[in-house]
Write a structure and sequence with these properties.
Bound molecules: cobalt (II) ion
Largest sheet: 3 strands, mixed
Radius of gyration: 23 Å
Structural class: mainly alpha
Distance between the termini: 57 Å
Strand content: under 5%
Helix content: 55-70%
Strand order of the largest sheet: 1-3-2
Number of strands: 3
Number of helices: 21
């Protein structure tokens, strides 16, 4: 390790440790915190956030990064740096400049406004009352436009926000990509709508909570998790909070009559968890030990949830275990019936319950509207109407109530404009990575059928996890798949799978 990099790591490690404490508090708040502790918890979080921001933008940090790289020009200064340390220097500089661009007062105002907005959103969602949320959304949109201006952009204000989640991504690249994807997906949905529906009501059989949790733990151990370095709890919305490589916290939600929701959630959050568990320990505190982007992170969760977790080889191994644990629900069902049922295509109003074809159309609806809000071509009061119009056009359904429409997701109220496309990018990256995986492991299905999952982890660790942010998402995609990101691999995968399932 070069000495200037080592010195910088010593300075940045405490910032990562502060961040991990904040993560732990967030986890606690969603799992076990007594209700009345919320006000004191806000004080704790606020203190940690400001300590982190101060440390990130301190003179000491500036000097330490400046020893590796020129902060103005981005030229490498320390010629002793290895290739990965140069990449780290570039990312340290990016984070530093980004943190410096947002004035402290603005960050505080943003946090305050979004805290009020997310409270208002909760009530508005429950009462299907967009009107009561609209003034909050207007404020958030204005602040997000201001944020884009602070961060800076070349062509489109939404580019500045996209860049926060997917470095380097622009509207100029994303818009045509998602338009091509939309055409392919709507076509598939229309074709499948002409076929007889798949029988799937048997999936909603009562399965006791404790047995579901035991099964979730079994899946995690198959994925390679150890209870010594991870844990699973239950929350209102499943999530993964990687505190440290030795402390991965995941949650699921148990619906007694929907075991498959729990299974999907555990595989999804487990996929995030494995990524963070395999980041390089030696670089903890450096961007090299962070996920490449939200889209790449999501590719890892969708990989396990869908590409593995809804595949036939996976269920050839798991289904007998499921039948053994839940005989009342599944002993009279064949594997074939089960496999068809969990892959049934059934467009609905709710994104997080969507099948893998509809899912991305939900994302595209929100992307098109939020891009319009940020560029100023769409007015907040038009949102519910546009939402219904787009849902009808792309998915052939229309939510009657706003709580099941434009109010269903929390992201806007938190000010997370630019986040949504990561969900779809995750699916596209995953499909491309999976092609590379199949080329390398042509017997993958046989091995999975036999219960071998370790080689999957090895592939992901070697090709993706170990690099952290050493490569940009675009570079990583090129490196692993030999191609730039596109919709093609994903659409080909869907066509193959569903032609077969609905033939
Ligand atoms: Co996820």
């Amino acid at each position: 390790m070069s000495s200037s990099y080592k010195h910088l790591l010593q300075i940045s490690k405490p910032v990562a440790v502060l961040g991990s404490i904040q993560n732990l508090l967030d986890w606690d708040q969603e799992t076990y915190m007594p209700k009345q502790a919320i006000h004191f918890r806000s004080e704790q979080i606020e203190l940690l956030a400001s300590l982190q921001h101060k440390a990130r933008t301190s003179k000491k940090m500036q000097r330490a990064i400046g020893a590796l790289i020129d902060l103005e020009s981005g030229q490498i200064r320390d010629m002793q740096l290895t290739q990965e340390e140069r990449a780290a220097a570039r990312e340290y500089r990016r984070d530093y400049l980004q943190a410096k661009k947002l004035p402290n007062a603005f960050v505080k105002q943003f946090a305050k406004t979004s805290a009020k907005a997310s409270h208002a959103w909760q009530i508005a969602k429950e009462h299907h009352d967009f009107k009561s949320f609209a003034p909050h959304l207007e404020k958030i949109v204005k602040l997000s436009q201001k944020k884009a201006a602070f961060l800076g952009f070349k062509e489109h204000p939404y580019d500045a926000l996209l860049d926060l989640y997917e470095p380097g991504l622009t509207v100029a690249f994303l818009n045509p990509l998602l338009t091509r994807l939309k055409v392919g997906l709507t076509h598939l949905i229309e074709e499948i709508a002409l076929k007889p529906p798949v029988k799937e009501n048997f999936l909603y059989h009562f399965c006791a909570k404790q047995k579901q949790l035991d099964f979730a733990h079994l899946l995690l151990s198959k994925m390679g998790f150890s209870p010594e370095t991870s844990r699973l709890d239950t929350t209102a919305h499943p999530f993964c909070n990687p505190i440290h490589l030795t402390d991965i916290r995941m949650t699921t939600k148990i619906h007694p009559e929907n075991l498959l929701f729990n299974i999907g959630a555990v595989l999804h959050e487990g996929g995030h968890g494995l990524y963070h568990q395999h980041l390089p320990t030696a670089h903890y505190g450096s961007p090299l030990a962070e996920a490449a982007s939200y889209g790449i992170d999501e590719s890892q969760s969708r990989w396990w949830e869908v590409l593995i977790g809804q595949s036939l080889p996976f269920w050839e191994h798991i289904f007998p275990l499921l039948q053994k644990e839940f005989p009342e629900a599944f002993s009279n069902i064949s594997l074939k019936e089960f496999y068809r049922a969990i892959n049934a295509i059934k467009p609905g109003c709710i994104r997080i319950e969507a099948d893998e074809i509809s899912y991305n159309l939900h994302v595209i609806v929100r992307f098109e509207i939020e891009k319009g809000l940020i560029e100023g071509s769409i007015d907040v009061k038009e949102v519910p109407f546009l939402w219904k119009e787009k849902m009808r056009a792309y998915l052939g359904i229309e939510p009657l109530l706003d709580g099941q429409g434009c109010l269903q997701d929390i992201h806007w109220s938190l000010g997370c404009f630019g986040y949504f496309p990561s969900y779809t990018l995750g699916n596209l990256y995953a499909a491309q990575f999976f092609n590379a995986f199949k080329t390398q492991h042509q017997d993958w299905d046989e091995r999975v059928r036999a219960g071998d999952f370790a080689f999957i982890n090895q592939f992901l660790k070697e090709n993706i996890h170990q690099y952290g942010r050493q490569y940009s998402p675009q570079e990583l995609c090129q490196k692993v798949t030999g191609k730039e990101l596109s919709e093609k691999a994903f659409l080909d995968y869907l066509k193959m799978k569903y032609d077969d399932l609905y033939s």
